[in-house]
Structures are given as structure tokens and as C-alpha cells.
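seq as requested:
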Amino acid sequence: MATFVVVPAWQGSGSSRAMRLIDGAEAIRGDLPSSATLLVDVPAEAGESLETGVNRLSSLRIIRERQNAALRAAAAPVITVGGGCSVELAAVDHVLSSGEDTCVLWFDAHPDLNTPDDSPSGSFDGMVLRALIGEGIPELSPKTPLAPERLVIIGARDVDPGEQARLDDSAIRTLSVEDATAAALVDAVTASGAKRVYVHVDLDVLDPADIAGTDWAEPFGLPAATLVELIGAVRGEFELAGAGITGFAPASATHAVDDLGTILRILGALAR
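C-alpha cells:
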């Protein structure tokens, strides 16, 4: 049975409504089994950049330390519930430190491959995957960097110029919304040589018709049924090393209820 680690971190977001991520994480936590759920205490303060180009770095470092403690206490596999995508730094690094034979599947409308030098916003949520492959700032570097050939980005459709340049000059595999079939995804993981998968889901990978509570909605995303099918396909072929679900920022408690059915279907596919 999976363990759920809930990290209601908002400090990595550049949205003016970033604190809705707290409400989103708490709404999901309300439907999780309490006996299998750990909650990470996130500092209330925004934090300082410490002249690194990463907004709110001081708080991000505290969150990472507290999350690492929770991950060490949790039984594997762990499903991390954010908050924003910044929570995946600790979660993915924890999995890679226990075995590098892992392919990371990054379901996201954005590739999150910016650096402090080229980020339009300075927000770490948009830099976390670049940090995971060992190309971020030292203060947020992973213990075990992710090899680009062990990474598949699925559903990205809003890509910044610096991110596109990195994609063009790397072994990172990508699948567009149109190309994201079960067979294509299984083939991509097989080609990576990995035996396990870590599945990251930023809810903005979904088509806005299927989810309302995201801050960075992009048109023409994956249907929720397709995302569940893709997760099921890779789970049928590879061991689940861990997973994360991020980016739920409902406008109100009522709006949260409207989206929870979709989110619980995704969690069910991950935790089956």
C-alpha cells in the first residue's frame, strides 16, 4: 500500500493566487486514508531569494528538509501530494537515491526546465526539473541527479525559449498530447532501460474541460480518461517507484469538490 506525503507548499509558485495550493493539498488530504498519510509542516513565511535568482529560496530549503524527514519515515512507494511542483525535488531525489534504474514520467503542461538565468518569473516550480537533472543552483541540487535519458516529458505545450533550447540539445524524450498513447509511453520507458517509474502529474497537463482548479491552465491538454489509461499502462509493465500530484489550486471549497472526483481517479490509478 502506498504512503501519502502531503506537502502544501506554495512558495515555488509565481501565481498571485499561489496560496490556493494550500487549500488544494488540504482538500485532497481530506480524502486520503489518515493511517497512511503524513503531513509536512510548511512555513507560513514567503522567504527570501538570498541573491540566487530563485524566489523564496529560504523557505524552499526549509520545506525540503522537512519533506526529506517525512520521506525517510514513510513506507515506499510514496505518493507526494503538493502544493506546487517544487515538492518533486525532494520526492524524486529520494527515489533516485534508492536506485537509479528509474525513469521519471513528467506529465505537465510546462517542462519546468528553466534556470535562474533564463526564468521569466524566478519561480522554482518552473525550474524543478532542471534542478533534478543537476543543472540548478547548488542550494537546491539533488543528491542523485536524474539522467536526461531517463526522463520522458508528456503533454507539455507551453515551453519557454530557454526550455526549448535545453530540449533541443539533450536526450530527454518528449510526447505531445497527440502522440501520448499507451504504446508510445511504454516504448519510451523501455528505451530508457529503466525497470521502475516515477510518475509526476501536474494537474495542468489535463485539458481545462476536465479540471478547473489550476493556476496555469493551457488549452488542448490530455483528457482525464487518457491520463488514467497512460498511468495504468506503465503500471502494468513497470514497478512504481513513487509518484507526485501537484498544482491543485481551487478557487473555493465548492470548486475543490467539483474537481476531486477527477483527482481521486488519478490517485486511484497511481495507488492501485
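The two ends are 8 Å apart (CA to CA).
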